Every structure is written in structure tokens, then in C-alpha cells.
Amino acid sequence: MSKLLASINPLTFQKKGTHAKALIALAAVSFLWGTTWVGSKAGVQYMPALQLASIRQCLGGAIYIIFFLFKGRAFPRGKEWWPILILSFLNFFLSNSLSTWGVKYISSGLAAIIGAVFPLWLVIIALIAGNSQLTLKSIIGFILGFIGICIIFYDHLHDFLNPDFRFGIFLSVFGTLCWAFATLYTKKQVLAFNPYFSIGLQMMISGIALFGVTRITGEHIPINEIPLPSWVAILYLAIAGSVLAFIAYLYALQHLPTEQVSIYAYINPIVALLLGTWLFNEKLNAFILIGGLVALVGVYLVNEAFRKRTAITTDQPVASQ
Questions:
Q1: Which of the pair, 275 or 159, is modelled with greater confidence?
Q2: Which three-class secondary structure state does DSSP give residue 47?
Q3: Secondary structure string (H, E, C) spanning 263-321
Q4: Mean pLDDT of the chain
Q5: 3-state SS, residue 16
Q6: What pLDDT, on a 0 to 100 scale, did the predictor assign at position 261?
Q7: If you write DSSP's letter for every residue of 221-245 in order, what string do you get?
Q8: Torsion of CA 143, 144, 150, 153, to 10 degrees
Q9: Residue 200 CB: number of other CB atoms within 10 A?
Q10: pLDDT tens for each residue of 137-151
């Protein structure tokens, strides 16, 4: 995998990057992917969520495709398209777009916490498939994760009377489930195609498909009526969230242990919570802070136990939110 990363990394002109540079790249990933939840929240306030996701994915995908074509990469052929189409459906058409749609109805911080617990789905899927067994560490992690979620939602019990809130929770949870399936599928298919060029192709395919969905359902506004705040959010999500953050993620993977790089998943929700409170006056109290911390500790324990027993790691591209 390291040779593959080195051959296609946009930062290969700095192959001998120092440990300090890799840590800076990891910090950038931890911050930028945390801000994408807030960026999505800002954008969907003024336009349909699926239309925003469509434009973002098309722009981000175009940047990737142009770069790799410039690098001389050939388009996939024949059966090579099948895993790309499947991952496009799971990673972007479902996971990314549903997560974007979800923040229209719930806070960006809450959505980020839900997104961070996706490793729990990996364990549940593996258990159902008979590919893993629970250890003491994973059992403790599951219990902590459940307690943390209960603490968070204790302060949101009255919100469940609101159908929009329930719908937003459903969209966000289902989005993380799709992301988990995509992660497992990517692990199996990673040697069958260029996973990084594939990200751009996945984005473009999903973006075009979502464009069709918004036209069929009528959930769109004319391009010239999209307000400036939404365009700013779209450009930020496409460039900073989908391109720059992923390049930094790839660079960090080349120079740091996978376990160390994976901490970005636990920092993202903190960034989203703080920015959401600052920019949108989203609720931030002891229930959310303590519950979020307990849940993330639980996810960490489960993820570590699962990683050691099944050798499923995060050393592959994952869909940024």
C-alpha cells in the first residue's frame, strides 16, 4: 500500500517530508474535515441539500480527474468500473449526500458526533458476518458508546417530538451505515483499481446522478439564484474539504502510523461542535460535551479492538463529509 500511495500522492515532490510536516498534515485533516459539517450547515440554509451536494461533488471530482489525467492516469476499463460505481453509490450518492441533507434538520455538532461513531457499524457488520468476536475492550467500548449517546440525547428528548429532527437523525445514522459498508468494500477492492483517482470518478458520477435526482424531484433552485453564502460553502467544501484535506490525509498516511492518523476521526466532532456553537449559536452544554467525550472514548476502544482482531484499518480513502 505504501508504494501505491507514494506513486500517486500529489505531494510526491516532497517524498522525504519530515515527521513535523506529516503532523501538520494530520492537524490540517483533523481541522478541515471537522469544518465540513459546519460548511454544509451554512450552505443548506439557503438551498436544497442534495443540490449543494451535487455541485460540491462535481467540482471536487473535476479537480481530481483533471489532476490525475495530467499525471497520465488512464480511465478504468471494463469490469474495473464496477467497484467505482458501487463506491460512488455508497460513499457519495448515499453517505455524503445524506449527511449533508441531515444537517439541514440537526446541528452540525450532533451530526459530526453521529458520523464519528461509524466504526461501531464496522464491528456490528463483522459480528453479523461472523468475521469477528467481541473482546473485553470492545464490550467496554460498546457500553461507553451507548452511554455517551444516551447522555447526548437526554437533552434532546423533547426534540424527538419534532418530525424534522427525527428525520435528520435518521439521515445521519443511515449515512454512517453506508460509509461503513463503503469502507469494508474499499478494503476488499483496493488492489483492483487506483483508489485515489477513483475518488474523483466517484464524486463526478454521484454528482451527476444527484443532479438528475434534484431535477426529477424538483428539489433545486436556478443556479443564478443560489446566494453567495451557499456558493462560498460549496467552494470551501469542494476545495478545502474534498481536495486539500484529502491530499493532507494521504500525505500523513505516508509518513505516520495508520493508528496515529486515525485520531482525526475523534477531533473532527470537537471542531464541529465548537464552530457550530460560535457561528450558529448551536446548543453546547454539559450533556453534549460529556456525552460526546464518553461516546468517542467508547468508539476508540471498539476501533482498537476491532483493528487488532480483523486487521481492518483506515489506510484507504474515506468519504469526507
A1: 275
A2: coil
A3: CHHHHHHHHHHHHHHHHHCCCCCHHHHHHHHHHHHHHHHHHHHHHHHHCCCCCCCCCCC
A4: 82
A5: coil
A6: 74
A7: --GGGS-HHHHHHHHHIIIIIIIIH
A8: -140
A9: 25
A10: 778 888 888 888 888
DSSP symbol at 161? G
By C-alpha distance, which of 240, 249, 317, 190 is closest to 63?
240
Q: Which amino acid is at 86?
A: I
Angle, helices 118-129 vs 163-189, to 10°: value is 60
pLDDT for the residue 192: 59
pLDDT 10s digits, 117-176: 777 787 788 777 766 666 777 788 888 888 888 888 777 777 888 999 999 999 999 999
Three cell numbers at 311?
486487521
Cell of 171: 439521515
78: left (phi over 0), alpha (psi -120 to 50) or beta: left
DSSP SS3 for 117: coil
156: left (phi over 0), alpha (psi -120 to 50) or beta: alpha
* Beta carbons within 10 angstroms of residue 160's beta carbon: 11
What pLDDT, on the 0 to 100 scale, is given for residue 194?
64
Q: Write out the DSSP string of 71-115.
A: TTPPPP-GGGHHHHHHHIIIIIIIIIHHHHHHTTTS-HHHHHHHH
- Comparing 306 with 73, the larger pLDDT belongs to 73
In terms of pTM, does the model score above 0.85?
no
Write the DSSP string, 163-211: HHHHHHHHHHHHHHHHHHHHHHHHHHHTTTS-HHHHHHHHHHHHHHHHH
